[in-house]
Amino acid sequence: MKLEFKNSKPFTVGAELEVQLVDRNTYALSNSSKIIFENLPEKFKNIVQPEVLTSMVEIVSPVCEKPEEVVSHIKEALHEIDKIGEAFGFRVSALGTHAFAKKEETQITAKERYLELLKELQIVLRQFLIYGFHIHVGFPDKESAVKGYNLIINYLPVFLGISTSSPFFYGEFTGLNSYRTKIFEQLPRAGIPEYFSNFEDFENLYTQLYEGGFVQSIKDIWWDVRIHSDLGTVELRVCDSNPDFERLELLIAFMQALSLYAQDTEINRFYYQTLKQNKWNATRYSLKGKFIDIDGYKTIAQKGLEKIEVMKKKGIFKELGTEYKIDVLKDIFRKNTVSENMILVYKKTNDIKLMEEFGFIR
Asked: What residue ranges define each of the domains in the chain, with the CATH number in brackets?
């Protein structure tokens, strides 16, 4: 099967943020997505989208040139939803998991695609109380997209480490910084993908899955990073949802820069078990986890900062017009992540309800 790659304007960016809808008083999940769509102003109709659960929505930015433009669209939509929520008793929380909800309290959105997924995935989908942040970068052709995709595989732990916000699930402290990651990996086509030598490799794999009836479109590929040929992008899917707008901007800027950098650099291929270990280290320890590199060991934060410096010296951020902001964003690597702050407060208070407040949009 031939996959058409819809060429995009090079290194444009977009993002999708999945958010919880929670009761303003109890912080329990609130099945309020229908209320949002009934009251949303026209200008937000294409930006706010339904999701698999009626207690969540997805904010989808338009295609943008700069990371801050993407974040501005997301921020504006979230504040609009919160305005509606003030009138109807719910609010938005942007965390990778809900801290204490149970699958029995959720409702699947009655769209044919979601109902078909439920039939196939059963309990795996019913307990999918998880929320992510996805980033798209545009590529001018399919082979440049493969280069970007291959390099981004190596940096999945950095992206995950920056975003971790899901240490609680079903009312328990999981001991991890991103439990969302482990839930998502239960899907049959999720997790760390393999490298491809060229677009034809990807096409051959997709054809095998398609002809076997396992996928109907690219949307049924749920890897941590995937080539989205329908949009002409590479899409990063490893990140937890996150309420920190500067953190979101850093994630977008880092992926945009790696995508350009990949076009003119040799891409190291790690052993698959090394990729898995590095991702686990981010899942368990966030940015403080170890990163197994080609030349030794460092923390995941050090790996991110090191690569930013390399790309800065090469003029990548300057070429993308993001150099003026990168030093500010670099400071995020030195701060606690959302998950780390959640854990610190929980150990002092033992208050699971309070954990949901960390996801509130300020």
From this structure: 13-355 (3.30.590.20)
Query: Which helix (H) or strand (E) segment is 299 a member of?
Result: strand 296-299
Q: Reduce the DSSP state of residue 11 to 3 states and report it.
A: coil
Q: Is 336 left (phi over 0), alpha (psi -120 to 50) or beta?
A: beta
* Helix ranges restricted to H, 167-290: 179-184, 199-211, 245-261, 272-285
- Residues 55 and 53: their CA atoms lie apart, in Å, by 5
Total length of the chain = 362
pTM over 0.85: yes
| Four-point Cα dihedral 340, 341, 346, 348, nearest 10 | 110
Residue/partner pairs of 261-264 with CB below 8 Å, 24 or more apart: 261/151, 261/310, 261/311, 261/314, 261/316, 262/147, 262/148, 262/150, 262/151, 262/152, 263/144, 263/147, 263/148
Partners of 240 in beta bridges: 132
Query: 181-239 pLDDT, tens per residue?
Result: 999 998 889 999 999 999 999 999 999 999 999 999 999 999 999 999 999 999 999 99
Least Cα distance to 67 among 24, 20, 11 occurs for: 11
CA-to-CA distance for 31 and 255, rounded, in angstroms? 33
Q: Which helix (H) or strand (E) holds 120?
A: helix 112-121
Torsion angle of the four alpha carbons 345, 284, 309, 67, in this order, in degrees rounded to the nearest 10: -70
Each residue's pLDDT tens digit, 59-79: 999 999 999 999 999 999 999
Helix H or strand E segment including 18: strand 13-23
Write out the two tokens for 302: 């050090």
Pairing mode of beta strands 190-191, 222-223: parallel
Supply 185's token pair. 């990996």
Q: Which letter does DSSP use for residue 217 in this model? A: S
Residue among 84, 80, 83, 32 at smallest CA distance from 57: 32
